[in-house]
Design goal:
The chain is of the alpha+beta class. The chain contains 6 helices and 15 strands. Strands 5, 6, 7, 8, 11, 12, 13, 14 and 15 form a 9-stranded mixed sheet that branches.
Amino acid sequence: MRLDKFLSNMGAGTRSEVKQLLKKNAVMVNGKKEKQSKRQINPEADEISVNGEVIAYIDKIYLMLNKPAGYVSAVEDAEHNTVISLIEQYQYLDLFPVGRLDKDTEGLLLITNDGQFNHDVMSPNKHVSKVYQVEAAQPVTQDDVQRFKEGIELSDGKVKPAKLEITEDPQIVFVTIHEGRYHQVKRMFHAIDNEVTKLKRVKIGNLKLDDNLLKGEYRELTETELELVKS
């Protein structure tokens, strides 16, 4: 990889800014000053530093975000704040959300720059489950549990069987689905003559939302957690 491409990709500056850094002897490759922007480097083996600070090479990245309400699951939006605007540390990595949560929905949202990972998690053929905590307008009944188990009929067809778990408070329940239709959970509750008043995703596959993450906070996934997402 060219040195200037590496530096710009890793957020050191634009191509023109990187050229200025090189001219000012601010860039070192393996401990030696380097001025040539077209110098070929191995980003995984060579040590690159700018003004004495080592620039770590990041290829693919996988983040867990505790999405707050009021943000749209998009890279750019002319009218609303986006979830990507919350990820200040890795803006240079062409991040995007894995799937989407509605603007008013909170909870677990994955952020990455890996298209294949996005496909593996979101493809209907992969059957990766998603679990939501729902606050409902009306108490949920055992009849509702059975209807979810049988599959709710929506305007765009019957959804796959879903698991509905009632807590001690019958207006707070957990729903497990294996699809990602538009406003699916809200529409399912509407179909049983109930309404969702608050929605939070708490689990994808076997990966649970980190309880230590405050709303709007994020962190990298561990290798173990990456496998949990797909299982």
